[in-house]
Give the backbone structure.
Amino acid sequence: MPAAFRAQCVAVGSALPERRLTNADLERMVETNDEWIVSRTGIRERRIAEPGTGLSALALPAARQCLERAGVSADTLDGIIVATISGDHVMPTTANLLQHQLGASKAFAYDLLNACNGFVAALSTAAAFIESGHAKRMLVVGGDIMSTLIDYRDRNTCILFGDGCGAVLVEAGPADGPGIIGFELHSDGAGAADLSIPCSGSAEIPTPEALARGDQFVKQNGRTVFTAAVRRMSEVCVSLLGRLSLTKADIDLLVPHQANLRIIEPTATRLGVPMDKVVVNIERVANTTAGTIPLALADAFADGRLKNGSRVLLVAFGGGLTWGALYLTWGRA
Ligand code: COA
């Protein structure tokens, strides 16, 4: 049965911590150098929150900016989903804290854990709520305080990540109007060990030995993750476009997860999308996990590239392993 509504993406907001951690700063912390980091990743600096900052401290201004741009008040929200792997707490969820702080009195709220694919998964979930008539207006937030999950003694990971958060407002609109046209989500738990935080749940408790090993921090098999990301990101885009009978001519903006410029460029090349249609902000904000895509959307909105009617392809890949793509036309009917 065709959906009665389409999920319109009507506004975006974002928030970054003030403090910049540059490659020169990292040179003083681990054995690395600016030339290596820029040539291998494209990253020049990342933003880092002050210790003790919960994700809600970024989610709140991002959400407020988003709602203000949309011209709607928080008490009209039906639901809030926060995609993150570094929420304020496991319980209560960051979405619950945000719901209260925003005054979103009638909204249900929960966090969604899907690592770097979290925002695409959360936006897909919101689309399903709206298309099925279960919600009319939802706030989808993606963000992480990765600095709490990174070992700043490990040069393999500490150069890659930063902190940041973004939010997109999704509303029910006419089924033949603009909005989320389609999405595709995938997982492969066989690659779980390639990108993980071993001591982050019930399987491994934070004993002094585990903490001394640094098991509370991100561990990755960088090369394997790199190869899988390039393959999976282009694969899922090709599959989604094919299913929707679309081609590269239907893409005004490609908004990829910002993990490494050397992952973004081959993804664009394989899709035949020129780099001037690709939103890249990795040099300034690095990999903010669930935050990368809404932050990139916010940048594209700020520089005028994201506007009413823009045809946008989102794509992400991350720990799990998990990946997905989502195609939308931006703005209200
Ligand atoms: N500075 C200097 N040298 C470094 C370094 C750093 N920060 N980090 C690693 N190196 C060294 C390695 O130790 C290795 O040295 P060796 O050959 O003596 O062992 C050398 O540089 C090459 O490492 P390699 O892993 O082959 O580099 P790479 O070209 O694969 O780039 C990554 C490394 C991590 C940048 C890359 O693999 C990557 O981006 N992977 C994906 C990671 C990711 O995005 N994770 C999150 C996904 S959502």
The two ends are 22 Å apart (CA to CA). DSSP finds eleven helices and 13 strands in the chain.
